[in-house]
Amino acid sequence: MRTPRIDTERLTLDSILPSDAGAIYRYCQDPEIHRWVHTPDPYGLPDAEYFTGTYAASAANSTELTLWSIRSGRAMLGVIELRHEPLASATIGYWLGAEHRGLGYMTEAVHAITDYALSPTGFDLRRVHWEAFVGNHASATVAHRSGFTFEGMLRQSTVHRARRVDAWHASLLSTDTREPKAGWPL
Ligand SMILES: CC(C)(COP(=O)(O)OP(=O)(O)OC[C@H]1O[C@@H](n2cnc3c(N)ncnc32)[C@H](O)[C@@H]1OP(=O)(O)O)[C@@H](O)C(=O)NCCC(=O)NCCS
Prior knowledge:
By secondary structure, the protein is an alpha+beta fold.
């Protein structure tokens, strides 16, 4: 899906470019990204070049995936994706380079992207789904602060690095408020 540019107070969210490969390669040396995200491990420069070139271009031409680069000024900070699904739904995924965490950037970006995704003038979705491996408190905190409702844990429902793992699930509906909801395992 073509990437709509979205501006927030501190960030610009726009298309991933081939020139982002160096930053993505550097950020994806972080074990925390390998622990929680389905990235190639080890992560080489050719992986970043493929992601920012072929993969991003084919996402832009598909109806299945929207990818955003998170930028502050000239710096590329991380990535957000929306994986489009039937019934006006999509699953959100995200990561930030380690030195850009702890500053509220991801909560700001998720808020803006879910606003766009659920708006009749944006993707006009009814539901955004969030999923993380059990124990990913940083990701859960972002979803909680963005107004997602925790829906539970699905045992061994996903596979990561050839092992079955339990996953937390949550959702944000187009009719929901953005107030943090009770019931998160945080
Ligand atoms: C998920 C991620 C994008 C969040 O980035 P961020 O918004 O900068 O948030 P932080 O990492 O600072 O964490 C958000 C909050 O969770 C808290 N937190 C972080 N790690 C935690 C942990 N292991 N246990 C409990 N709380 C934790 C932080 O203290 C922070 O709260 P605070 O603002 O009150 O201090 C980032 O941590 C990341 O890229 N992680 C690796 C990739 C990843 O897990 N992606 C999500 C896959 S579902």
